[in-house]
Amino acid sequence: MENNTVSVDLGERSYDIVIGAGLDLSALCADLNGRRGLVITDSHVGPLHADRICKQLEACGAVVSLVDVPAGEATKSLDVMPGLFSRAIQHGMDRSSFMCALGGGMIGDLVGFTAATYLRGIEFIQLPTSLLAMVDSSVGGKTGVNLPEGKNLVGSFYQPSRVLADLNVLKTLSKREFLSGMAEVVKYGIIYDSDFFDFIEQHVDDIQSMAPDVLAQLVKRSCEIKADVVAKDEREGGLRAILNYGHTLGHAIEQVDGYGAWLHGEAISIGMVYASRLSVQSAGLSEDEAERISALLKRLDLPTRRVTSAAVSLERQDIPWSELRDVMSADKKSKASIPRFVLADAIGKVRFGCEVTEACMEETWNVCH
Ligand SMILES: NC(=O)c1ccc[n+]([C@@H]2O[C@H](COP(=O)([O-])OP(=O)(O)OC[C@H]3O[C@@H](n4cnc5c(N)ncnc54)[C@H](O)[C@@H]3O)[C@@H](O)[C@H]2O)c1
Ligand SMILES: [Zn+2]
After folding, report:
1. Which ligand is closest in space to the CA of residue 153?
2. Each residue of 81-107: pLDDT tens digit?
3. Ligand 1 pocket mutation, candidates 8, 109, 157, 159, criterion most atoms within 8 A of CB
4. Is there an atom of ligand 1 within 6 Å of 100 CB?
5. Helices (H), ranges, the chain
6. Mean pLDDT, to the nearest integer, of 325-350?
7. pTM above 0.70, yes or no
């Protein structure tokens, strides 16, 4: 399979995303010759993929050192950064050095912020290994860490110099993580491109069997859509909000059930079904289209309702609407405590910043939780 390239157009911060199966970094990183860098990965991905990556970078003439941090969201923390800075200093890294994030979105966010702040910013390379990282977190330049008070509260916008997505590494990702990433892929179809939504519908079997040529098209189109949205709104003043389709309720579910109960994409899948139902009530989406959305998510083995999912065991079967509603009001994206939704007028066409009535929010939850 030939490599595919998607350009992210951000003026002097523009960069390419290269997508392929079995990427050879020695051809894609020749400019690293003679430079020092850290490859930072997590304890799941490191043993599987770090050796090959370091060898390829060394073949370019780079002098690399590998750092392995514990897998899991708890590592995306300020506390981990001093250790990474020390390793960079020990490795003799200066302003011409680079950091590579080899892992999922957790590693991408942590390493991006570390690269953004080491010596006021050195080159940052994304080597995403989860589907979510390939189609979402490695594109767009948001980096950061969590605080005990909440997720992603400290960070910066910092663009990578390149994103190299090797589809072969997805073979070692768990099926559940893979399908969770598919929720964001379906989201791109809903918010931006009905043809892409059709394409996903027509290729569910190939997706389930992870057929490489179909995966390549999914990742490429998802990156194109995210890149397009980000190029129009790099710092999240407007259009970028559409990327939050399904996230208003999805984030609240992640929080009330305790982080870790749901994978992000699973909670977003439930949130997208909810947003679709709201869209039938308060925007132009037809019943048929809302049904297509939830049917597609089901065929991808994603949950469409909170209580009936087999994937997770919930500590509480029922949560009162008022509790979810309160969590939604506290969301960064709500204004004056009123949650804002992205609503669809059709598959492929959405608007953002929408308010819906209290009754509509609650009734919709009552029929689809
Ligand atoms: N910056 C952004 O724009 C943005 C967007 C969305 C999400 N995020 C962040 O991304 C993170 C979630 O990303 P994620 O879902 O990739 O989580 P993750 O990085 O924690 O990866 C999920 C799990 O899969 C493992 N893994 C990853 N790739 C693997 C592979 N190829 N083989 C085997 N195991 C593999 C990881 O070790 C981990 O256990 C969150 O921190 C979220 O806040 C950031
Ligand atoms: Zn998301």
Report:
1. 1
2. 999 999 999 999 999 999 999 999 999
3. 109
4. no
5. 25-28, 45, 51-59, 81-90, 105-117, 131-132, 175-192, 194-202, 204-208, 212-232, 247-256, 264-282, 287-299, 321-329, 358-368
6. 87
7. yes
